[in-house]
């Protein structure tokens, strides 16, 4: 049902885009809605339905928040547009019904939660794996928020001087380096890449603050002020959350979480099992192989 509702919202957005003039405020906001809806469809189809991936569901929920804000802004400035009203109703139902029902099921039925989201048997391993996966998912979502800000800057009213153009180019380059180093650092447990990630984290933070201040200084239509402020504030919060998660992931390097993510059975990559499977457990937790002595069998009459 969520997938069908997202596709219905996408169709409504396409109809809107075909009706608005290319230089109108609604046209630019429509492209931001179109892009965000497409990302939501990807997360709900690939991450939730096909992979049953809990961090992907959280990322999908974060995308729904900004999609609801965009839809509300679009309807507020076009209250006679039935398509905008229909899209707002669809997105609002997406935010309320599936999220509440899933949260209730996850909270009350632990057995269902383990079946639905492929959790390992070891709770600590699962916490580390969730931190790792959630950090990656939210990093991708943050890039999507940065791209939404770039869509809004496509309006000629924002391309007024070299500072605007320079900040846009710098944000694209730095955000790309930020997410690539972050994902590679997590995937390969590379501490050098993670350090670069933390160094470049200043860039998305600075761009969100710059875009927030710039939209107030240039005083564009209220549609832009609300949409850009919402996108910049949520992006700012996401960047901070991703940095906190990355610090937790960095502390878990070398503890076998990479093996869990690569599909190694939990019984073979938990810290206890890894020290048991090859022999006896020593005082420092390392496994020592047990020499197999030949057994002599004698027969008596």
UniProtKB/TrEMBL annotation:
InterPro entries in UniProt: DUF7789 (IPR056691)
Transmembrane segments annotated in the record for this chain: 28-49, 56-73, 85-107, 192-210, 222-245
Signal peptide limits: none
Domain DUF7789 span(s) in chain numbering: 129-246
Keyword Mitochondrion attributed: no
Record's keyword annotation contains Transmembrane: yes
Highest taxon of source: Eukaryota
Keyword terms of this UniProt record: Membrane, Transmembrane, Transmembrane helix
PANTHER family documented for this protein: TRANSMEMBRANE PROTEIN
Protein name in the entry: Putative conserved plasma membrane protein
